[in-house]
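Feature request, filed as a ticket because there's no other form

It would be nice if the structure record came with a short human-readable summary line next to the tokens. Right now we just get the raw output. Example of a typical job, pasted below so the devs can see what we mean:
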Amino acid sequence: MDSVNKTLYIPLFGKAYISRRGILLNDPMAERIWAAEGFPLKGKSRSRWLACYMAMRAAVFDRWLREQLALDPAAAVVHIGCGMDSRCLRVDHGQGLWFDLDFPEVIRQRRRYYPETDRYKMLGSDVRSADWLSPLPGGNAVVVMEGVSMYLRPEELSGVLSRLREHFASVRLLMDCYTELAAKASRVRSPINDVGVTQVCGLDDPRAVEGSGLRFLRQRDMTPEELIRQLPGWERVIFQTVFAGRFARKLYRLYEYEGGAL
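Raw output as currently delivered:
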């Protein structure tokens, strides 16, 4: 795998570590895959604080997706940048179609652990390609794009969102983004540096991509208080101060969009 693809092991480790502790996220598949793969992470990428953040981010995405599927149970789910994540197991509600997308080499790894079914399919493609959407139905879609936007240039991100809006009758989208400050800092001080990534992009203004046809709705809380309260004692205090404070929000955002006849 190239450096960008190797970043998938950072959230995988975080989710496995937190799941073993029995807080924030129940993810036995992450535990299983991490134990089997044994990828040699080092430095900040193995931080307990980053692990908490990765698991909390996944839990927030999961909760948002459940909310959307409660509103539209038949909507297709599209998980862009799925990596080895088990969201298709954690959130699946037994209805509609689910598509997990990542680079072909990632999907080849993923197929060792996740079998396809009539409802669940994996797509090996670069999200920037215009072709991967072709086999997908054109009805309503709920899209999660976790840990992806920062690896796309602004014009590439706008292109991805435009193609989503053009293909589906309606789209609901949740994506996390670095700010421009975080993108600059990540060149020298970021866990992704530990797997060789030094170039990322930030998005300060969520409305900057509205030319894609998707409307910005709101900024979501990446570190909700009810999840922070699950952390024990002194860990909760440190996490609340360092990772959920004002400075943290200057670095990392969670944006929600919609488009079409919802």
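Something like this underneath would help us a lot:
The longest strand covers residues 170-178.
The domain at 3-260 is CATH 3.40.50.150 (Rossmann fold).
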